[in-house]
Known about the structure:
The structure holds 2 protein chains of 2 kinds. Helix content of chain A is 35%, strand content 19%.
Amino acid sequence: MKVLALNGSFRKNGNTEILLKQALMGAEAEGSQVEILRLTDYKIGPCRGCGLCLFRENVCQVKDDDVSLIFSKVTECDGVILGSPCYFLELTAVVKQLIDRCWILGHQTGKIQKPAAVIVPYATRGWIPYISIQSNLLLNLMGLKRINQIAICTQGISEVVLDQEAMDSAYNLGKEIALAIRDKDFTYKGEEGVCPSCHDWLLRILKDQETVECPTCGVRGKLSIVDGKISVKFEEKAWADNRFQPEVAYNHFTYHIAPSKDYFLRTKEERKTKSKKYREYLPG
Amino acid sequence: MTEYIVKLRYYPGDPLEEIKEGDLKGLAQEYGVMISYQKIENRQMKGSLLMENTLDKQIEDITQEVITISADGEKNLSNSIRALYKKYRCPRTAYSLLGSNEAGEKIAKGLINIYGGW
């Protein structure tokens, strides 16, 4: 079995790399082969939004970069550990760039085949609200299931080695991934959140001010205060709407995305006429 | 008098609950509008999934449920659409109002902006 670490940090031997390597040591102790990729060492171009990967199966027009190599590494391994520092509320730009390129993998969503874990070192408590959304999104799009996540409060370069508890938790995370692969047990082992599906604590209040939604899963529920504590009730039927369920993902691509080709073609002349002045104005 | 025609196109998985013609009749009576319903089903079972190739088909021909609302008053139309959105949620695609007339589409789209999240 092989565990692949994807490092979303530019810095060599920084906290993210140290924690990922510590996790890989844990995986190795359970018999895994290991590999680490620093994503910033690879060329990851922006998605061009051409839609051809959706309309012509498995064809990405960005051919002069390393994204297909990264995806092939994910395909070849048995489990993934994603690491990224959180600088401003989110994961790093290279991770987000990779998310955008996952259109080509879109139909893998929900077809969970491999376990994954996430490591996020960050500097200030309260500055990491969106890390779960982004990590869950990337992992799900790549056909992976997150079984745990650790966020480590640490700041200066390589300072995390001073935090033995953090180092132990990273090591154990690596062991967990290896054991999950071995036992084919991808059940979630991390801290529970408000959303029983993605285990995140974020909620979005819809404009009707009656409904809340897990922004990651898209599942809707009702919020109430019970004994002074916020409680969210997700109805049973709402789980069928989880965007990472295979059927929901299939419907999204089949009915929300693919038919746009017809709309695109039938509005061709009108688009051409109305967009002419923008082509001519400040030409790039 | 302005005539409003709105077509709401719901694709598989879009409505939060089953669309029943009886419920639509009740809403039409309550809000003083005309509501008709059309179901188009072109999926076929493959493995455990109902599947369909939609890439080269016309939007109107793929599997969907179309609720058509006709009204001659803006208030009646708005109230009925608001009730439909609350019951089934807003239709979700950029082309889900296709076939509406201009006056109707303007109102339906405005209400999507309020009730459909962002």
